[in-house]
Amino acid sequence: MRVGVLEKCDVGILRGYCELRSRAQSLDAIAAATPSVTGRDGIPRANPCGIEARKLHKLVEKLAMDLGLVYASRARAGAPTPAQDDAARRRIEEAERFLFAPRAFTIVKGGKSS
């Protein structure tokens, strides 16, 4: 199996991912429209749709990781990185030099004195 290629066995989990994501988004929309509901006892409570949507989002996130739909999981699996042009490579190198290159400390006068 090559990285970045779905196999027939992945179809079921991908379908499940899509259905769960759709259901979570639908429940989110319902909860956004009516954030609270009144219980049988007359006390307002958080809409159960929002609670269920949060549970589903956790599962959707797990499935996305398993399917390699999240950047971090693609990197762990060794998926090829997209080609970069020379300008992008230069900007990355400049940023890394700025952030990580060893430099001498500079003392600036005018700080707070005790």
Please count the beta strands (DSSP E, at least 2 residues each). Answer: 2
Helical content (DSSP H or I, runs of 4+): 55-70%
Mean pLDDT: 83
Order of helices and strands: HEEHHH
Distance between the termini: 66 Å
Outline of the structure:
This protein has 114 residues and is mostly helical.
Please give a structural write-up.
Helix content is 58%, strand content 5%. With 114 residues, it is mainly α. It has a domain at 10-84. It has a two-stranded antiparallel sheet. Helix 1 packs antiparallel against helix 2. The longest helix has 24 residues, at 10-33. The model has no long low-confidence stretch (mean pLDDT 83).
Give me some keywords for this one.
114 residues; mainly alpha; two-stranded antiparallel sheet; 4 helices; 2 strands; 5% strand
Topology:
Blueprint: H1 10-33, E1 36-38, E2 44-46, H2 48-67, H3 71-77, H4 86-100
Antiparallel strand pairs: 1-2
Helix pairs in contact: 1-2
